[in-house]
């Protein structure tokens, strides 16, 4: 098994050795797509438009700022084509679509609670462990071991936007839409195995509204605890199957709807007009 380092953490090589929250979610979405990604046979199409910010890059801009000056500069250098304007009077300056990242940073920088909980912690701490015989990896955005908590930092469109959960046919907030109870449950478990300590999972979320909103979130309510247990049960119920898909022992299921599935789609049957599924 490869030893995890900051350099290889996000590599496909280590994805073969360790399951992660994002990989598990990918498998839930479409097993065929995730297997193709792991085999290097397919990668998500990069967005072509430059008029809107890539959410991942915007999020990482904010993250790297609070990690360290060096990390932030390295991040900008690595992504300068996407981030910086290449022409005219604004050449070399942050593109308008990414200026929001600066607003978010300013808002968080001015916050005492963020300064107390998030800023002093160790950044980008890799944690590993075993969940029922399967190796997992995770990365804590900010860890305060001696104070007994870790924090994750999220950027979202709007903290109070509603998201449709098609399975449960109800509206849910972003934390449920993105399955953050699962991420927190996994990180709690991995940090316990890595450090032998029961750490409180915390989250700071900032919105991408022109005047950013922010929120400090804990997972301590009875309902949060229940959602974390249910998320862990879901992992236990499905991770063996995903491992078997990776090992070629069972055929991956194709969702039939994602980008990967659409590429090679061949019609083979009629759908009754009255049976078209909606989310
Ligand atoms: Zn699919």
Automatic annotation (TrEMBL):
Domain Putative exodeoxyribonuclease 8 PDDEXK-like, first and last residues per copy: 20-262
Coiled-coil zones: none
GO MF term list: ATP binding; helicase activity
Keyword Transmembrane: no
Pfam family, one: DUF3799
Keywords annotated in UniProt: ATP-binding, Helicase, Hydrolase, Nucleotide-binding
Keyword hit for rRNA-binding: no
Protein name: Putative exodeoxyribonuclease 8 PDDEXK-like domain-containing protein
């Amino acid at each position: 098994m490869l030893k995890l380092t900051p350099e290889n953490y996000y590599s496909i090589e280590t994805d073969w050795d360790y399951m992660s929250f994002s990989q598990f979610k990918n498998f839930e979405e479409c097993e065929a797509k995730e297997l193709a990604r792991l085999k290097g046979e397919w990668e998500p199409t990069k967005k072509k438009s430059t008029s809107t910010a890539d959410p991942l890059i915007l999020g990482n801009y904010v993250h790297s700022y609070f990690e360290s000056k060096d990390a932030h500069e390295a991040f900008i250098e690595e992504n300068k084509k996407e981030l910086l304007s290449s022409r005219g009077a604004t050449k070399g300056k942050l593109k308008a679509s990414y200026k929001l990242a600066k607003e978010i940073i300013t808002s968080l920088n001015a916050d005492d609670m963020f300064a107390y909980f998030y800023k002093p912690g160790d950044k980008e701490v890799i944690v590993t462990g075993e969940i029922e015989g399967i190796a997992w990896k995770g990365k804590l955005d900010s860890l305060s071991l001696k104070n007994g908590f870790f924090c994750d930092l999220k950027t979202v469109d709007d903290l109070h936007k509603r998201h449709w959960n098609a399975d449960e046919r109800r509206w849910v907030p972003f934390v449920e839409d993105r399955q953050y109870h699962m991420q927190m449950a996994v990180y709690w478990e991995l940090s316990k195995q890595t450090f032998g300590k029961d750490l409180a999972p915390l989250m700071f979320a900032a919105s991408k509204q022109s005047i950013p909103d922010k929120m400090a979130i804990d997972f301590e309510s009875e309902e949060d605890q229940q959602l974390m247990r249910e998320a862990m049960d879901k992992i236990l119920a499905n991770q063996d199957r995903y491992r078997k898909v990776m090992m070629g022992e069972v055929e991956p299921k194709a969702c039939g709807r994602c980008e990967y599935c659409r590429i090679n789609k061949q019609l083979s049957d009629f759908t009754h007009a009255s049976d078209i599924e909606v989310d």
